[in-house]
Predict the 3D structure of the following.
Amino acid sequence: MSPANPPRTNTEDYLRMYRQMVRIRTFEDNANQLYLSAKMPGLTHMYSGEEAVAVGICEALKVTDKITSTHRGHGHCVAKGAEFKEMFCELLGKEEGYCRGKGGSMHIADQSNGNLGANAIVGGSMGIATGAAFTARQLGKDDVTVCFFGDGATAQGLMYEVMNMAALWKLPVIYACENNGYSEYTRTEEIAAGSITARAEAFGIEAHQVDGQDVLAVNDLAQKLVARARQGEGPFFMELMTYRYHGHHVGDINREYYRSKEEEKDWKENRDPITRFRTWLVAEGIASEEEIEAINAKVKIDATTAVEYALNAKYPDPVEVDMHVFTDVKHTLA
Amino acid sequence: MSPANPPRTNTEDYLRMYRQMVRIRTFEDNANQLYLSAKMPGLTHMYSGEEAVAVGICEALKVTDKITSTHRGHGHCVAKGAEFKEMFCELLGKEEGYCRGKGGSMHIADQSNGNLGANAIVGGSMGIATGAAFTARQLGKDDVTVCFFGDGATAQGLMYEVMNMAALWKLPVIYACENNGYSEYTRTEEIAAGSITARAEAFGIEAHQVDGQDVLAVNDLAQKLVARARQGEGPFFMELMTYRYHGHHVGDINREYYRSKEEEKDWKENRDPITRFRTWLVAEGIASEEEIEAINAKVKIDATTAVEYALNAKYPDPVEVDMHVFTDVKHTLA
Amino acid sequence: MREITLSQAVNEALAEEMRRDPTTFIIGEDVAEAGTPFKILSGLVEEFGTNRVVDTPIAEPGFMGLAVGAAMTGTRPIVDLMFGDFIFLIMDQLCNQAAKTHYMSGGKMSAPLVLRTNLGATRRSAAQHSQSLHALVAHIPGLKVALPSSAYEAKGLLKTAIRDDNPVVIFEDKLMYQDKAPVPEEEFLIPFGAANVKRHGTDITLIGTSSMVQVCEKAAEILAAEGISAEVIDPRTIVPLDEDTLLASARKTSRVIVVDEGHQSYGVTGEIASRINEKAFYHLDAPVLRMGAMDVPVPFSPALEDITVPTPEAVAKNARKLMSREMIHAA
Amino acid sequence: MREITLSQAVNEALAEEMRRDPTTFIIGEDVAEAGTPFKILSGLVEEFGTNRVVDTPIAEPGFMGLAVGAAMTGTRPIVDLMFGDFIFLIMDQLCNQAAKTHYMSGGKMSAPLVLRTNLGATRRSAAQHSQSLHALVAHIPGLKVALPSSAYEAKGLLKTAIRDDNPVVIFEDKLMYQDKAPVPEEEFLIPFGAANVKRHGTDITLIGTSSMVQVCEKAAEILAAEGISAEVIDPRTIVPLDEDTLLASARKTSRVIVVDEGHQSYGVTGEIASRINEKAFYHLDAPVLRMGAMDVPVPFSPALEDITVPTPEAVAKNARKLMSREMIHAA
Ligand SMILES: Cc1ncc(C[n+]2csc(CCOP(=O)(O)OP(=O)(O)O)c2C)c(N)n1
Ligand SMILES: Cc1ncc(C[n+]2csc(CCOP(=O)(O)OP(=O)(O)O)c2C)c(N)n1
Ligand SMILES: [Mg+2]
Ligand SMILES: [Mg+2]
């Protein structure tokens, strides 16, 4: 960990960060269970292993700051303040979900907390994030937007188009590249030439690489960049070196043809962001083992309760099918 | 000029280069006249002022090497070996045009000389050029492809997508950015952040900037890069600093709101690529003033003859309208 | 009433709405000082400044995506897409993102933006600058699609579009930018989904969109001289589509031709014709005829280009056929 | 005859054609070792190597553009687009470039490539992974469009597509990848523009595309039990479209329903219905009915998603209506 210059100075903040990371991991474990027990419609992409990225960054944001998320979006959603109940309801296609069941895992959004939504088009939210930052400039607000995306998404031309505009217009947006080493079943090296940070720098955008398994390092950098972006010094680019524990999606079980079990084991055992932070918290005397276990237990119960609730919740009424196509037409096909 | 290390060692080559530059300028003067006298359908984009770029590069290529061109494509077309007659016929929409009148100025192509065509979508040919280089690799040919595009086109995301692939797969393609300082009516500085060559370098692509008004410098660099690309050392990126003398298109007459007459005058009087090369040729004793004038006069006659021919040539028969939609259906709407 | 060009009408609509709503802004290539290559936006940057009339790099997917995000967060972008043909570049941001935002979020978010672009051939601009691609976006749920047929509609529909809380795509006819029409001085809006009966008639209905409204009107004049009374209807918006007006006319005249400048196959004419066939079938004396642009890329040569688009003469000819029941033998 | 899955059929077609023609290659995301997320291409990289089964970065416009250039210069790219919804990303390269190359060059150049992608909802993949967007490409002159409805068609049409000198877009139904059908061991091709009469009938014609062919067949079975004899036709390619077969059936049965999984409005059903109306009008006893997917983005919730797509029961219900002439009163 980065003990020097701790970004948060009080226990409450540290513990909230820890709790948020555990909430993400616990959410994912439950989502995976729902899939394995065939209770969840479709597939979903697990964020486990990358918790320090979402939490380190989102803890540097205000509620009115915006984020855009990805197909691997549960972590961002939780970290930006969402509740388990509405999230699980959405994953199960229930009426009480954040999107009334219409979006599902790949489109989960939580506008009340500034989460403009997951996106099933890789790189698809880069314009949206840049536009949200444009709105802030336009309306004279000091909101900052963080655009989350994977290393694979750096291959999408859209990124270069919007980075160019963000740089020209000094927009308060931070491009946060979650480099987990893989795009689906392909190693990043095989599909990304040159250097990812240099690509941002070529547009005059200050870029940083950071250990994405170290929540304090991430948060420290995020705090600084967010503050500077708020002052009009943006845009910025962050490359966060991280790892996903599960397959590309919940159904990607046999993955030895593209990465070894040893590699997975190494990341899980030696660099787990939650274990590392927990060890630090205890070592620094910020929390006792018991307090940590109590947090873990509480989160587990919250999750179980939310899952139970969601499983028993109502599906949307079929009449909703042609609602929300347009804002001003109640039922488009009526 | 760059007297050191002259890329061509014999008079014939120098004079052909000179002649090709004059042919481009003369072609454009005639095209402009056709527009002004309302004899040409539509608008067209003049290449005048940028001749050293097309000629310097295309003189480094074999007939089987490929180029892709732009909306400002007459220069590339001439430089890659096209004839006036078929070109003017195409500009006038006549049956004997390179594309039987179906393409016009913005789609003029000359496959027999490896010109895969102008393109009316800014940046639209970047994939095509990269694909042509891919074919060479695939079929084990040593052809090189040059992709011409403007500074404005560097804003298109497609460029970064294909540069990434070209770099990963070491494709024999050279991206040739004709930086004439403007995209339509906007200065490049206002719409391009950072550095253009750095953008290529960030993908691990070797990039060079060169004086695009110095045909020998351009040719020298092109010869070296083409040779290296042929050996499998590509891709490469060239930024050619140049200037267009006319408006964005022939109809763009009053342009003082975006650039000054002084600026235009300076480029025309002090950096004209033809004048500079001519002066050098005479100074080096490669050609006499008389020989130069003879070349100029001959080209002028060629152009006038071709224009006359094209003006009197036949339009395509209306029955051609539904031909060439598909390769295997003579008349699609029959 | 005073007459102004379609270009001026667009300019006025933009100026009025931008004065009314400070969250609106224009974004696109060469929209500021240049006022677009068509000079439609002249003067706007002087009034509203470069913060609200924003010149972009040549990056259509990028600025379209930016507009979607801006719209989702409280501003109202008016995107200027220089040529309708470039819509192919922004389909993902328009159709996967903007069109679906409201629905996918269960009504929680929306993307109130306007995409202004154009359509129309016969400008000698060849295959990549002459397409009429409105059918493509009309196929995507979540987008409204307006097709002004004169300066009057251009102003009224654009103002409505800007106030609409949904993404709206508006296609202007490039050839009509300099055409004048009467446009009131006082403010007005034209509601979406309200077709306009341009000319009343009893024998045959000519439904024309955008550039083809004039073609239908001219055809109606030719036919009038021959004693055939043609009704001419301009749907004005194809999403939403004012079925009622179209059906009422079809039921009255029993004969219909649908004329549109998009390619005929898998385009707008098929949809309109089908709706009429489905819902007015037993009133029809002849099949609904469709006339779209030829199913060929737009050729450059004037000798070819002009024959790819429906003309008044061709419409009149088909109308005569329908009237003479020649179609029976054709079928 | 042996039965194989649609996925195996595609795999076989690719392997056979790649053996036959060394200039062919596959390009797309995760096509090599992974064999695509649907595992359709398993084994191909082992046989043909990574030079002919090429994994790309996640850059659809880029690799589509590359394919166009490759096709123009002597190779035959077979582009793998993971989801049909991503076609929005490549429209420019597909529609402005590939589709127009032959025409714009006056027949001098061509872009012989195949774009393999998919369509189909009800996989719980929500609005950006469930669309059936074949109508969009069918609208663009210069593209051929094939819609295989079983493993048999998937193989035969794909082989034809690969040999075709034009750009061809082929949409496979994702839900059918594991469905088996009889497919001959010996080589065969299915010509484009030849509709397949899947079931002969005399009372009503059901025209179904892709996933909807099975739906029509099931509807026909339901109807048969009630004494209604339905003819089921699969056009197989919508560009070119085999009008003759469709018209002959329409003239015979006098009643037609067109069923397609694309959104109904401004889609495929409108085109097919219009052509039948235009050319078989006087043989029809009722309007041609259209059944497309609902005009809504595809919702995630199973409770909603399933009702957006035509079902055999819904087709049968509409068929009964047409038979009972209920439509007269509806019109
Ligand atoms: C435009 C687009 N292309 C392809 C896909 C299929 N796909 C989904 S996730 C993914 C890999 C993304 O990799 P990365 O951006 O590194 O994110 P990660 O999954 O590693 O978090 C791909 C190719 C998609 N959803 N959208
Ligand atoms: C995709 C696309 N966007 C916009 C245009 C309109 N347009 C034509 S040329 C041009 C400027 C191109 O600038 P640059 O690439 O620098 O080339 P130059 O004209 O300076 O040679 C623009 C914006 C276009 N043809 N295609
Ligand atoms: Mg990744
Ligand atoms: Mg330029």
Notes: Residues 45 and 139 of chain B are 35 Å apart (CA to CA).
